[in-house]
Amino acid sequence: MVSPGNALSILASKVVPIEPYWEAVEETVVLNIRLPRVLMALLIGGGLAVAGAAFQGLFGNPLVSPHILGVSSGAGFGAALTILIFRHMAFVPVGALIFGIVAMMVALWISRRGGRSSLFMLILGGVITAAMFEALLSLLKYVADPNDTLPTIVYWLMGSLTSSSYEMLAWGAPLIAIGIAALWALRWRLNVLSLSEVEARSLGTNVQVMRWVVIVAATLVTATTVSLAGIIGWVGLVIPHVARMLVGANHSALIPASVSIGAIYLLLIDTIARTATSAEIPLSILTAIIGAPFFAYLLKRAKGGWS
Amino acid sequence: MTLSIRNGSYGHKPGQPLFSGLELDLSPGQIMAVLGPNGAGKTTLLNTITGMMAWQQGETLIKGKPLSAYGERELWRHIGYVPQARANAFAYSVLDMVLLGRSAHLGTFARPSAEDIALARRVLDRLEIGHLAKAYCNAISGGELQLVFIARALAGEPSILFLDEPESHLDFKKQLIILDIIERLAREDRMICVMNTHFPNHALRIANSVLMLGADGIHRFGPTQAILTEEAIRACFGVNARIDTIDAEGRILRAIYPVSLDRPSPAHMEM
Known about the structure:
The complex is a heterodimer. Chain A is mainly α. Chain A is built from 13 helices and two strands. The longest helix of chain A has about 35 residues, at about 25-60.
């Protein structure tokens, strides 16, 4: 085990000259295993939370998240499909993004009646879409080669940051950063988009174009996180609510708050996942165990004020 | 600023127009009330006039130019729209909500400046709800929320204001507050106000002109006193009514009293 002092010294030695008094293996652990993993947790946590906040704002609905809208399942299916076809992780983000957007579109299409989506229908549309893509994902697992592609798919789907590396950060971070930057830039407009369509248009906002920009940006972020670390649920649903309790509903403050709280939250969760037991606990299990009861509490507290 | 409609027609089903051949011209400071039974197409009319829905025939002209001559953003700097008060899923503060009214004036990535905030506060003060600036929109009364939505529209500094049943769900006093505000906006700011309402008395009180939409697709448009007659009320709403005048506080007030439902005669019923 690397002591906290040594870990800090190793990190500092990259900026200021410090004579190494630690073992070489400690430096390798801190710089090549722990650091990329910490950065990855911050990146994915912030990304999932901001995607959730954006989807909630876009649909004027605090009950949606990338997971509930089926985006995560679609991206998961897309990623698994590319693993199966190309037998390589390189094209995973592309497949995840395409099917993430397809899933989003299907959920929207199911929920639309006469040009409008009610909150209820939107959630149902997401549940149906998610169920469909999860079934397709099971089918892929069923036909996957049990010695080769199946373990890759299964291991990666459970949600883990174990395989974090600088190579993954190198392609994942820019994609997530682009998505977050777009949502960050549009954070005040998200307030307008959260109103009814007639109101948003009457405030001089090009609702159609804005919606697409937000959907693509939030789906890009979600799909990239799925490609990097599998499906991690609940962060995108719960963190925006925590942020709203702290800074209010205005997306100008909510988007930055969601990014930072989400980043710190997933880092904490990953640290627990890594250290709580001798074996690692998959992230999605922990986020659900913590997220589900907390969300139940929020629902009870809101006394149906969201419907 | 003028608002005109030329040969405006719209219907949800072919051959059954809600209104057709609509012709009207409104000039600054005028208030038009749109009256008609449920389903006659009052909200649809607002949506077609403002271009949210396309006319099937005809066009809307602002300053003599068709809507298509304006960019989306430019158009909504001229027009303000006040929806029926409905709570939002998110608890925005009143000031944040009113600031959204600046959105047609702000760039896509811009956020409200100190000047925008000062403007929003002035609007709130003018509507006498300045004390609510920090309150949450889902924690104020329906009447206050309606005032917030009017403030939001006014924050966009429009010259034409559309209001969709702004006083429908409000108590007696709040209705009068809203009507007084609309009158002031027309008189002091020379705004054109177009207002859907369920209350003929409100039209009599503040409107210069009235557009009555009948369920049969026939409309009547003209000066309030000429259009809002006992005969027209019977034809449009199926209600026998009397119009009377009282003189109170130096103001001549006309009011409509519903007397009875306009039922077919008993002889007719027996057949």
